[in-house]
Predict the structure.
Amino acid sequence: MKNIMMPEPHEILSVLKETQAEYTFRVACDSKPLHGQFFMLSIPKIGEAPISVSGKGPGYVEFTIRKVGRLTEGVFGLKAGDTMFMRGPYGNAFPVEQFENKNLLVITGGTGLAPVRTLINHFYDHPEICKSVYLISGFKDVDAVLFTDDIRRFKDKFHMTATLDNTAAPGFETGLVTEHIKKIPFPSFDDFNVVVVGPPVMMHFAARELIANGVDESKIWVSFERKMSCAVGKCGHCKINETYVCLEGPVFNYVKAKELLD
Amino acid sequence: MNARSFYLDLMENREKLYRFLSSIYQKEVDRALLTQMKAMTFPSEAEAPSLTEGYRMLKDYLDQIDERKARIPEDEVTDLAADYAKIFLAAGISQGSAAFPYESVYTSPERIIMQDAWETVRKLYESVGLIKNVETSGLFEDHIALELEFMAFLCEESHRDPDCSDWLIKQREFLRDHLLNWVPSFTADVNQYADTAFYKGIAKITEGFLRFDKEILAGISAPFDEERIENQNEVGETAFSLNPENMDQILQELKKEYRIFAPKRYEKRGAKSSSDLIRYGEINSVQEIVHESQSDFSPKEIYYPITQTMIRFQENQSIEEPSADSRGVLIFARPCDINGIKRLDNIFLENGGHGDIYYERLRDKVRFIMMECGGGWDDCFCVSMGTNKTEDYSMAIRFDQKNLLVSVKDQAFDPYFSGEKSNEFTDENTKVTPENVDFTPQFVTSNKKKVRLPKIQNRQQLKKASDLEFWKEFDEQCIGCGGCSAVCGTCSCFDTVDIIYDETSSDGERRRVWSSCMLDTYTMTAGGSRFRKTPGANMRFKTLHKVYDYNLRFGDEEHMCVGCGRCDRRCPKEISFFDIICRLSEELEYRNRKVER
Ligand SMILES: Cc1cc2nc3c(=O)[nH]c(=O)nc-3n(C[C@H](O)[C@H](O)[C@H](O)COP(=O)(O)OP(=O)(O)OC[C@H]3O[C@@H](n4cnc5c(N)ncnc54)[C@H](O)[C@@H]3O)c2cc1C
Ligand code: SF4
Ligand code: SF4
Ligand code: FES
């Protein structure tokens, strides 16, 4: 019987500093996670935490990690050649097939761009299977901007709005992501989906704004973050009503998401 | 021939064939083995077609060595050695394709050695005390030769200990989970890569024998079992009346194979310093068992320890913590608690579609001695929760005035009572002489407390239940100590904690420790934000989990709460969970009535 709690050592191939508090780790790994899935990363003696896959390629996966506490701080001390323990991938994924050959709007707040990065790249690499991609990515300020190169690339192919909460900088708009939603030409879309990922408050208000703009709830997809100690449906921490976020999530359609009462 | 000697012969013959096949795969055949084989007679009509064909091919091959007397056996040996190297080691084949004789190769997606299968069989060997002698074999544990040899070992054990069906079960499982899982594809490859009729024949025999052996194993049982089944049919559950001294002798005997747990009294360790604590612990004598009152803690800590080491980290390795004790676990428990373990089973074995190894390996060992419950306690409401009855026990016990009545349901325990397993008591006076009696355990049919479960039929009603004002009362009352979860037999949540042995080394371990949704840190994420912020919200979450969510998820008419009432007795703030369920149901009924009007 497989030990579902057992992490395996993986080699860190490279570390890229995105911002002061966010680094991207490329780790040797042969598994092929789906868009939106996550792994449990751990460092012996410190602990374990769920981290989304922010990039993938032959023989590696990437994680973009924000330094916020004990484990994430420990991870920041690692460098290329060091060992990262991990198990996964876990959770469900964005229903990519359902997004194909339609219009897609992706709204992200801060590190929320990480879990949707592979999804966006999928359409970047295969523009023929998508009618159009709109992207609104909000950051606190210019120092908090992630994936600068990607944002530049995305601007070439997609309708990309990068925005800073309340400061101005070249190449960026100003204002919360919610303020940019009204600019999206929903009536010109024949069929579309919206993906919203970010802090809980941001997802809540973005969904409200989308609905106010006539978007049907069933077209909205969100990704939840909850405290997780196991990611395999045993520890109970991520449970909301009868739903386990680690098993049935983290991705939820808004019709389901709005009725989950913590 | 009687059943017993038939069984013994069968085990012996099977062992021989397994060993023979194993030796063929272990290395190139040498002259000695070849000569030996030539002397063997093979059945011309075997029980399975591919066996017959395999034997025929092998026989033809061996016969032709004789016919061509001109060829010296050395040539044959060299030919066979070359074929062995080609088939199993890919020698001389440019693409490197061969029939690599490892289970891992056939069961891992990458087709490489030392994968999951290797891990599993290694642990299996270790679990029966077999340690591979690497130097002599040089093969990994999931090599076909070693897997066949393992079967031979199990046959040998069955032969040695015909009363024990465990060895037989192990054979069935190993054949199903391992050998038959990959060997048919492997032998097909052998057939393809082999040049000699010798190895083609061996492949046929191997495959045919394994398939046939599966049928053999399905059709037999240990002779001892058979006798007992006959007994069982005659008398059904056997029941005995014993005095405590007799029972203690049986316990001593049982202790050789089981750790035995029961509710015990720990003086002056209770919640109030003057009171005693009744808690599960290992016992030596039935006199230690507290049966005249309920236990403060559930038996959960036996199969789901408060803190449990899962993984040890050494350098850059993660190592699974082995189980501490191989003995079985016998627990004296009431029906509510036996029902409680089914809730933990659902979470640890079923939820998410995968089992938790640490729980499973302990849980597999657990057998219950059901303590007949007189009911009549003040706090429990098992009848309302449907947990007053159970069939899941090996023995049942009633603590009568002076004597004990024991009903033995699981035949594995019969020998302890029939005197068979107590031969060592030579002293006539103390010899166990249980008296056969009529005893069928009774179940409680009514409690002092009765509860109506809330009727929540849809999401709107759930929302209404969540929004009730009365949850806020607990913001003041409940201090979030989590004591209620600690005593509960069905609370299953845990945290993981990493421990370091010493600051400077990277060695350490990962444990899991009981947690509780009543703790204010339960939903806390980095930076201190919480998804449920108040004791009232926690109480709502716990209550709905116990009497609604779990049932919605797992169905089966069962709830997470089994109505044992322990949490009510434990709470330092005298909050009654029973009252909360009643309140919730009333409030909802009241509100629903208002809507109807
Ligand atoms: C599905 C999912 C995907 C995530 N993806 C990312 C990502 O791509 N990048 C990123 O930077 N962060 C991500 N997070 C958040 C990340 O897990 C937390 O920041 C991290 O657990 C903090 O751990 P810590 O030990 O540094 O913090 P501490 O505050 O020291 O946390 C102690 C423990 O609490 C738990 N915990 C704390 N915060 C969270 C949280 N937000 N979610 C779940 N458990 C938590 C963990 O078990 C952690 O070990 C994700 C969370 C989830 C649930
Ligand atoms: S919630 Fe209370 S009454 Fe129900 S099973 Fe747990 S401890 Fe017993
Ligand atoms: S209900 Fe009582 S026992 Fe449970 S957490 Fe609150 S105060 Fe502690
Ligand atoms: S994270 Fe443990 S149950 Fe979901």
User: Anything to note?
Assistant: Chain B touches chain A through 56 residues (CB under 8 Å).
